Amino acid sequence: MINKEIYKELKKRIVYLDYKPKQVLNIKELAKEFGVSPMPIREVLILLETEKLVHIIPN
């Protein structure tokens, strides 16, 4: 349930260019902002990558 809300919010921010193209999104910062552990953020970013909205760069 929380993942769905995070997904909607991050997708909205991407589509409305709240995040600039090629802007680095920090998983730990996003987790802190949304009050969740990093895992739900990772899951949402993986989903957004399948939609070609983000590109995940491995560490």
Description:
- By secondary structure, the protein is an all-alpha fold.
- The chain has one domain (2-50).
- Helix content is 59%, strand content 0%.
- It has 3 helices and no strands.
- It has helices spanning 2-15, 27-34, 38-50.
- The longest helix has 14 residues, at 2-15.
- The chain is globular.
Order of helices and strands: HHH
- Provide the residue-averaged pLDDT: 95
Question: What percent of the residues sit in helical stretches (DSSP H or I)?
Answer: 55-70%
Taken as a percent bin, the fraction of beta residues is: under 5%
Poorly predicted parts: none
Counted by DSSP, the helix tally is 3
Overall morphology: globular
Radius of gyration: 11 Å
Distance between the termini: 28 Å
Instruction: Tally the beta strands.
Output: 0
Structural class: mainly alpha
Q: Could you describe the largest sheet, including whether it forms a barrel?
A: none
Question: How many separate structural domains?
Answer: 1
Record keyword descriptors for this entry.
59 residues, mainly alpha, HTH gntR-type domain-containing protein, DNA binding, DNA-binding, WH-like_DNA-bd_sf, WH_DNA-bd_sf
